Amino acid sequence: MRAVVMENYGGPEVLEVKDVPEPELHRAHRRIEVTRAGVNFADLHVRDNSYLAGVPLPYVPGNEVAGKIDGERVVALTGGGGYAEVAQARRLTTFSIPDDIDDDTALALALQGQSAWHLLNTVLRLQPKETVIVPAAAGGLGSLAVQLAKRLDAHVVAMASTDEKRALARDLGADAVVDSTSETLASDLKEAADGGANAALEMTGGDTLHATMAALAPLGRMAVYGGVSGVETLVSTRDLMSLGKSVQGFWLPLLYGQRNALSSAMEDLFSAVRSSEIQVSSVTVYPLSEAGRAHEDLAARRTTGKVALDPSR
Length: 313
Known about the structure:
Number of strands: 15
Helix content: 25-40%
Shape: globular
Order of helices and strands: EEEHEEEEHEHEHEHEHEHEHEHE
CATH class of the largest domain: Alpha Beta
CATH superfamily of the largest domain: NAD(P)-binding Rossmann-like Domain
CATH architecture of the largest domain: 3-Layer(aba) Sandwich
Largest sheet: 7 strands, mixed
Mean pLDDT: 96
Number of helices: 9
Radius of gyration: 19 Å
Number of domains: 2
CATH topology of the largest domain: Rossmann fold
Structural class: alpha/beta
């Protein structure tokens, strides 16, 4: 089969398409003929060896796929191996795609949709009328988080880096938009949140994390799910105590072993699509042979919505 193989850590150039044997099927896993492989920021961290969990080399990246099992359409969260014509996933993290949902939509809901859902509902426990800050609001996860937060009747302050992306966030329902590259980000966020937000998502680290933290109201809470800046960021315990703010980390694989957590969220996401409460932005699809370019474009924030690879090309 064709697969993207990393034999070294490094830049996008280490992603090479090769002919390799199909993976040996593990216990309680299912073989999937892949039609789409999702590309996520986590894959960039895997590639340069800065991910939360190390991977052995050589390695086939990719943590989510859409495809078929014996003709049945499925979407699945994988433990790597997604950038290939054939992958495998645990039964607990494999979900049937309903007839009224297309593969691209299902793929967008798998990792990024599940992450957005659990960040808002499981971690932040967002309540109606609360104000929440959403970063990268035109991206795959951020665009879904904006809509899911509005579905919970929250006030959404969206962050994005360009006029076009901020306009998209507005179209998705954001109540206020802020330039994420602003030199006065903390005060901009605080003003947009009418003095302070109750909750915030954070995936950048460094100055952006501190600015977002400063924009939280007393007793505000933050969910950290990434660190795309690559900066290891310290949080002052004095600041946490003096204003009662809280910070909780989140990593979706922590839920992979919980029987109902993922399936319940997936069903709710499918329901939200059917009711038009959320809309999935068009998926940007690259040939498998251009995985490196997909990584470059994602890192440079040149994409909006979901990014995927097509193993047939």
